[in-house]
């Protein structure tokens, strides 16, 4: 069995499923749901006709360009997961149907259902791939068959479970904005820097509202924090690659000296409750935006999109100067200032020395 699994490149491990597959799923979401949301927002705010007009009508539902991109989130996630699991072509292409089914049957908690169903279907597909002379029939049948069966059996309960956990976190944040502001900000922020996907986690849990705002704060603190405290070693290139790219670039340095993580993490513990208690910043855009931070400025854009959505729904009158002040302070200014001050103290103590933050 070990030899067979090795031949098929089926690696049952936390890294393969919890890091590689989860990270790929986030990329699939980014290239469908998130991009679709951005396109719709740009079209609506700047009154761009070809971005707001209906380009297709399916089963009575009108779709814009962005709407079509967002509707493809299930297939995009599943194919991304299949790619991460190194699926052969016939398995990879079959994941389109698997992703559509699991996301649709998973309801609002579809991303979590897609993660589980796509992994299992992909591994079964890999197991039978090229094992028969009629591979072009057997492999898609097995992959899609397993995927459809699992989508029917486990996608609905998985989707409901994800929604329940997300609602619990959001409810707890509403009840205890200070404590939960700290916890959500720190945990999601650290997940962003670790080699796992904070964006996929937020998407799977449907993390929005005050909890989403705290998550945005934590992610921004990690990215902006590492970008500014390592400027001396990494200059403008490091500032850009970490500030609007990813703080995950520092993971190798964190392994060598975990204390370099103190400044951004403490900064997130401060900005989180400020976001929830002072500015009451909510992230009511797409849940994946909660875990993106300043990567492509998706986090702040998600907050802005949420404002627009709330105004359209009649739950918010207008975007105020206080809203903008909170967004700028939480996402950019406070993470930079707090991280620099805390980092100076850490350096003075002797826990961090010059060169510890140098990117290779």
H/I helix tally: 16
Number of domains: 2
The whole-number mean of residue pLDDT values reads 93
Residues in β-strands, percent? under 5%
Structural class: mainly alpha
Short summary:
This protein has 360 residues and is mainly alpha-helical. 74% of the residues lie in helices and 2% in strands.
Core attributes:
single chain; 360 residues; mainly alpha; 2 domains; two-stranded antiparallel sheet; 16 helices; 2 strands; 2% strand; globular
Can you walk through the features of this model?
The chain is built from 16 helices and 2 strands. It has helices at residues 2-7, 14-45, 49-52, 65-71, 73-84, 89-105, 110-128, 135-175, 177-193, 198-205, 209-229, 231-243, 251-256, 262-278, 298-313, 321-349; strands spanning 56-58, 61-63. Strands 1-2 form a two-stranded antiparallel ribbon. Strand 1 (56-58) and strand 2 form a beta hairpin. Helix 6 runs antiparallel to helix 7 (110-128), helix 6 (89-105) packs parallel to helix 8 (135-175) and helix 9 (177-193) crosses helix 11 (209-229). It is globular, with a radius of gyration of 21 Å.
């Amino acid at each position: 069995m070990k030899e067979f699994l090795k031949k098929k490149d089926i690696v049952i491990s936390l890294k393969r499923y919890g890091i590689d597959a989860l990270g790929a799923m986030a990329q699939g979401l980014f290239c469908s749901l998130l991009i679709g949301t951005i396109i719709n927002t740009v079209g609506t705010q700047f009154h761009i006709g070809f971005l707001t007009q209906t380009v297709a009508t399916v089963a009575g539902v009108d779709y814009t360009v962005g709407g079509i991109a967002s509707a493809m989130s299930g297939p995009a996630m599943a194919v991304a997961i299949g790619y991460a699991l190194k699926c052969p072509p016939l398995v990879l292409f079959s994941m389109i149907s698997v992703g559509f089914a699991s996301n649709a049957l998973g309801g609002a908690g579809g991303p979590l259902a897609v993660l589980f169903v796509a992994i299992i279907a992909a591994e079964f597909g890999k197991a039978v791939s090229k094992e028969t002379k009629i591979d072009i029939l057997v492999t898609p049948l097995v992959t899609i068959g397993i995927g459809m069966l699992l989508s029917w059996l486990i996608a609905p309960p998985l989707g409901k479970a994800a929604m329940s956990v997300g609602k619990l976190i959001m409810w707890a944040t509403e009840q205890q904005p200070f404590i939960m502001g700290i916890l959500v900000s720190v945990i999601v922020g650290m997940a962003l820097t670790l080699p796992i996907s904070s964006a996929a986690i937020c998407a799977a849990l449907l993390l929005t509202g005050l909890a989403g705002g705290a998550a945005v704060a934590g992610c921004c603190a990690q990215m902006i924090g590492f970008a500014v405290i390592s400027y001396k070693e990494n200059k403008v290139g490091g500032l850009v690659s970490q500030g609007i790219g990813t703080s995950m670039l520092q993971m190798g340095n964190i392994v060598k000296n975990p204390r370099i993580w103190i400044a951004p993490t403490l900064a997130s513990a401060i900005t989180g409750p400020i976001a929830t208690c002072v500015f009451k910043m909510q992230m009511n855009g797409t849940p994946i935006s909660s875990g993106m931070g300043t990567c492509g400025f998706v986090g702040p854009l998600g907050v802005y999109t949420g404002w627009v959505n709330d105004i359209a729904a009649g739950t918010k009158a207008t975007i105020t100067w206080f809203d903008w002040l909170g967004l700028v302070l939480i996402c950019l200014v406070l993470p930079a200032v707090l991280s620099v001050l805390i980092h100076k103290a850490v350096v003075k103590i002797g826990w961090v020395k010059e060169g510890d933050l140098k990117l290779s």
